[in-house]
Amino acid sequence: MEAGTEETNPDLDFEMRPLVSLIIPVFNQKEEYFRRSIESALAQAHPQLEIIVSDNHSTNGCTEFLSGIADPRLRLIKPPCHLQLIQHFAFAGFHANGQLLSFLPSDDWLEANWLEMMLAVLEKHPDAAFAFCDLRKHVVESGEVSRYRDDAYPSRYFTNAEAIRIFGKFICRDTSAYMVGALIRSGAYFKSGGFHDAGVRYAGDACMGLGLIKYGGVAYESRALANYTVWTARQGKSDAQWSAMACQDIAKVISWAENDIELRAIAKDARFSFLKSRIRMSVFFLLAYIKNVIDDRENIRIHDDFQETLKILSRGWLPKWMTSIFRAAPVVSLTSFFKDQYGQKIKSRFL
Q: Are 105 and 226 in contact (CB under 8 A)?
């Protein structure tokens, strides 16, 4: 394994290029999770696989064990300086040499037959810009394991007009976390701009999914071939903070999509409205805001930011004076009752 910053070689002979580049960006991940991710990558038996680990200047030594791995498929790179999340994924993707590529977050992992199965899916559907699969969802706090999409739909091919109807919904069980286990054609990835951020902090995968369907359809495999880790507030992942940032990101992604000429044309052919997505996401994040007010009333700064972003996402339909009503003590008591009674049912309609 070679360590240090690597450069992609554009003159690499075509026959020498790996078929698949599996990219694992990492920053200060807990070693037990990162090691599991690496081991699942190494378990893929295909000889034409390159595994690119991009270390975003970790300070906890999580990548040190890689020096003891002799597998020639493994390559370690590092950006010149620490990058924000989306920029780091973009940097790592730029170094892919494969005809196909995949991103694996450093706390997630793959089944041993993932690559074999997903290669077969793309071979079956040559017009697909990428393929994604079902996942097993692992909740760290409770230890609960479940299928992510379950029987939402069978294995099938979606034209780009069909795909925009599900990827344009944004946060939904059908496509959330689609990137884990997805296999992407490099040509479509680089033509679409790859992990372009549209000004977002975390939701670059939402931009990437929409960008890819400009260059082909989407294939789905209903078997759970990858594993997705779900963190909670007890592991230092603030639900209120995540919701506020996700709301801000989705507002930017929808604005970007509405102004993309090719996506507007696909949406028109599909009779799909980004306005409906904006309304749906406004309702979703209003409910998330109410939940966070109930669960974390003292987090005033985040709630203020959340209200401002809700106003932007809804194009003024949810002004701050209206959302402030939900912070009044009597309203909090009432909404707490409805949350306890109907919260899970409401959540299941979105995720």
A: no
Strand partners, 136: 147, 227
Helix %, strand %, coil % of the chain (to 5): 45, 15, 35
Instruction: Give the DSSP per-residue string, 289-340.
Output: HHHHHHH-TT-HHHHHHHHHHHHHHTTTSS-HHHHHGGGSHHHHHHHHHHHH
Per residue in 139-186, pLDDT tens?
A: 888 899 999 988 778 999 999 999 999 999 888 878 888 999 999 999
- Using alpha carbons, list the distances in angstroms from residue 202 to 178, 207, 246: 14, 10, 7
CA 188 to chain centre: 17
Backbone angles phi, psi at 99, to 5 degrees: -70, -20
pLDDT above 70 for 259: yes
184's tokens: 């992407």
- For 14-234, CATH gives 3.90.550.10
Distance from C-alpha of 319 to C-alpha of 307, rounded to nearest angstrom? 8
Distance, in Å, from the CA atom of 215 to the CA atom of 326, rounded to the nearest integer, reads 43
- Global pTM value: 0.90
Report the relative pairing of strands 109-110 and 217-230 from DSSP bridges: antiparallel
Q: What is the pLDDT of residues 13-29, one digit of tens each?
A: 545 679 999 999 999 99
Q: What is the CA radius of gyration of the chain?
A: 21
Helical residues (DSSP H) of the chain, grouped into ranges? 31-42, 85-94, 114-124, 160-167, 186-191, 204-212, 239-258, 261-270, 274-295, 300-313, 320-324, 329-350
* Pairing outcome for strands 20-26 and 49-55: parallel
The answer to whether 121 and 131 have CB atoms below 8 angstroms apart is: yes
Angle at 124 between CA 153 and CA 149, to 5 degrees: 20
Domain assignments of the chain as residue spans, ordered by start: 14-234, 244-350
Question: Can you say how many angstroms the Cα of residue 138 is from the centroid of all Cα atoms in its chain?
Answer: 16
